[in-house]
Amino acid sequence: MARLTTTILLGTALLATAACSKKRPEVLPPAPGGEVGSGTGQAGDGFAPGSRGDFERSVTSNTINFALDSYDIDARARSILDTQAQWLARYPNVPITLEGHADERGTREYNLALGDRRANATKNYLAGRGINPARISTISYGKERPVALGSDESSWAQNRRAVTIVLN
Amino acid sequence: MLLNHRLLALALLLSGTALSAQTAPPAPAAAPAAQEQGDELVVDVEGGISAPLGIAIPAMPTVAVASTPAGRTDELGRQLAQIVTSDLRNSGLFKPTSQLKDVAFGEVTAPTFDYWASASASALVQGFVRANGDGTLTVGCYLYDVFSRAELARQGFVVPPSDWRRAGHKCADMVYAKLTGEGPYFDSRVVYVSETGPKGKRIKRLAIMDQDGANHRFLTNGQSIVLTPRFAPNQQTIVYMSYVGDKPAIYVYDIGSGKQRLLVNNPNLTFAPRASPDGKWVLFSMAVAGNTDLYRVSMSGGSPQRLTESPGIDTGGSYSPDGSRIVFESDRSGGQQLYTMNADGSNQQRISFGGGRYATPVWSPRGDLIAYTRISGNFRIGIMSPAGGNEKLLTDEWQDEGPSWSPNGRVLTFYRQGRGGSGKADLWSVDLTGVNERRIATPLDGSDPGWGPLRP
């Protein structure tokens, strides 16, 4: 768990770095050896192609949200997952983990099962978009890891989620 | 300290042996005149209508002051009386008097009843402490009816010094059981999840303590999330869930050795473990491709046997005390409701029909009730009959969850989640009347309490 969180933080740091570097791309010299991923046409932004940073820059979001006590993939979630599926199709060897989460207004054990449902519903959708399910592992955190800390509808809506984590 | 916590509970006939040399007069013969059937000293445990019973628990004198690894025997005598006082007061059924006086050793079996009657005490608990030549301690415990001047019960406990508090709990259990007619529960432990840190990243550690919060000990270091610990009936084994290695699964923890092992070795999420009353099985939930069902597996591991096959979430299983039935929650009807079935999964019947959702059912060790979390606005702790019906809600706060029964089936412990960004949670207890609600003090925050069986 500690390791996972560390890598999430690292990803955030990379994103922040990317945001800074975007403001001054012209003055930078080409990165030495940075041409490996030029085939994607997206190199030069500091992310190795196929990396987590590349994924998170390329997709609409790494997170989809769910309605109360639901694991339906709605239209907005589908459009997000479609951009994820496109990226995953481009890097067919990159494994991912889907985290399923629930809000605090459910009992602990039920929420573990609900988080598992959400992760698996997401996995099934991506599989339906042609992603090999063997690349996808799932983990449910139930209500253990909220991103929004309030006890209100807005926080709960943000916490009912599935997050795609690229394991590169 | 760990394995050989054998409490030698001897029903010593103290007047004939241990005390004969020192005590002057034997205990006065039970006065039969005042003891007609209807006049017996009893405590009403059902209604909570009558006032708590006045009781006096003076410091326990010692035969001769001696130093022990647990402290001096005279000091232990004072603390033992405090343990008995605290246990009885916390039950909500007793009102210990503060009008105490010193009791001479010879007075233990010859109480000054007139004084205790004037101190608003209907019952009197006296005792003594003695350091034995073999390093053990003997604690004598006597219960008297003040008005009839009769001895109601006596017991002696021989304990290693490290277990001295248990002698106090055993004494309180004797008093409680004699005066209420209920089973004892004070000499028991609670395993729970100690929590600290920010709400978005709580650090959770397995912890164990005596029922009254003493002898607190952390069992895991907090590097992995741990959830929902429960005792096995052998008192030495805890089943719980851990995220160690980012693979959430059920583990079996041995308190004596501090070692643990994975219970079910497969890639699926396994959770909600509960030991069977005979300790041979673990009832648990497993999520396979998004569908959660109940299974059981031998306590030693092996292949799980599937018990439910509904397309939905079946979890939170709990055995009846004879092991023949299981109560669980399922959302097969659209939302969480309670069901019972035979231990082999047959004869599944819904037992909850009220509004809102019902979750985390636990079968009382007495067999007569199911406790649960009721979700309808607030999360509340409730009880109902195993056949359904006779519902009674015991608490009413924003989020109370996860009840666990005391060994005598008269008290529930649960956790109360705070509202807002702190993530704070605390352990609480409530009795069946719903009146006696108390917070259980823990060093850090607490959740997921599992109340263990009465210790032998």
UniProtKB/TrEMBL annotation, chain A:
Gene3D superfamilies the UniProt entry points to: OmpA-like domain
Compositional bias (Gly residues): 34-44
Every OmpA-like domain range: 53-168
Signal peptide positions (record): 1-18
Chief localisation class: membrane
Keywords: Cell cycle, Cell division, Cell outer membrane, Lipoprotein, Membrane, Palmitate, Signal
Annotated spans, Disordered: 24-55
Keyword Signal carried by entry: yes
Family membership noted in the UniProt record: Belongs to the Pal lipoprotein family.
Assembly description: The Tol-Pal system is composed of five core proteins: the inner membrane proteins TolA, TolQ and TolR, the periplasmic protein TolB and the outer membrane protein Pal. They form a network linking the inner and outer membranes and the peptidoglycan layer.
Name of the protein in question: Peptidoglycan-associated lipoprotein
Source species of the chain: Sphingomonas hylomeconis
UniProt gene name: pal
From TrEMBL, chain B:
Subunit structure and binding partners: The Tol-Pal system is composed of five core proteins: the inner membrane proteins TolA, TolQ and TolR, the periplasmic protein TolB and the outer membrane protein Pal. They form a network linking the inner and outer membranes and the peptidoglycan layer.
Annotated SUPFAM superfamilies: TolB, N-terminal domain (SSF52964), Tricorn protease N-terminal domain (SSF69304)
Start and end residues of each TolB N-terminal domain: 42-151
Signal peptide: 1-20
Family to which this protein belongs: Belongs to the TolB family.
Source species taxonomy: Bacteria, Pseudomonadati, Pseudomonadota, Alphaproteobacteria, Sphingomonadales
Purpose of the protein: Part of the Tol-Pal system, which plays a role in outer membrane invagination during cell division and is important for maintaining outer membrane integrity.
Region (Disordered): 300-320
Stored Gene3D superfamilies: TolB, C-terminal domain (2.120.10.30), TolB, N-terminal domain (3.40.50.10070)
Organism per entry: Sphingomonas hylomeconis
Compartments, as annotated in UniProt: Periplasm
Keyword entries, A-Z: Cell cycle, Cell division, Periplasm, Signal
UniProt protein name: Tol-Pal system protein TolB
Main location, first listed in the record: periplasm
